[in-house]
Amino acid sequence: MSNDPAISVRRFPWNLDHTSVCDLCGKWRVQGNHAKCSRQRQLLNAHRRHHPPK
């Protein structure tokens, strides 16, 4: 690294979920359609969505 301020360091400003790896298929989320993974994830987490009646 240089201490010269004229040389800028490249930084990626992305802190988004779509830059991460899919936890179900292991591919990057930006690679193709993850509708199947989303459906599987919804089924796995369905028990969390059903709230008891008030």
UniProtKB/TrEMBL annotation:
This is Uncharacterized protein. It comes from Pseudomonas koreensis.
